[in-house]
Design a protein that fits this description.
By secondary structure, the chain is an alpha+beta fold. It has a domain of 64 residues: Winged helix-like DNA-binding domain superfamily/Winged helix DNA-binding domain (Arc Repressor Mutant, subunit A, Orthogonal Bundle). It has four helices and six strands. The strands form three sheets. The protein has a two-stranded antiparallel sheet. Strands 3-6 form a two-stranded parallel sheet. A two-stranded antiparallel sheet has the order 4-5. It is elongated, with a radius of gyration of 16 Å. The termini are far apart.
Length: 97
């Protein structure tokens, strides 16, 4: 889709089931800061690097992790939130442990 000469990304609308411990491991403080930066409109590698203050190698590793886990998508040189809906759950036994 295109609006005023700007391509509008098509987002996945699928639900992703994820255990709470996996969710917390992927969305650590650094990845959360990157996600908030991307959502805030700073979506090129350089913009994200300047905004977060992360070194190039560290940012590259974290973006790759976010891409591989489906949190962000890459369109050209821009990183965008994936638009997926994450349903986080915790497994407990019948006694509540």
């Amino acid at each position: 889709m295109e609006r005023a000469g700007v391509a509008i990304p098509s987002y996945d609308s699928e639900y992703v089931l994820m255990r709470e411990r996996d969710f917390n491991a992927i969305l650590d403080n650094i990845n959360l800061e990157i996600m908030l930066t991307v959502i805030g409109g700073n979506n090129s590698f350089t913009q994200i690097m300047r905004r977060t203050g992360l070194q190039r190698g560290k940012l590259s590793r974290h973006l790759r992790r976010l891409l591989n886990s489906g949190w962000v998508v890459k369109e050209g040189s821009r990183y965008l939130p994936s638009g997926r809906i994450y349903v986080v759950y915790e497994v407990r036994d019948v006694n509540g442990r």
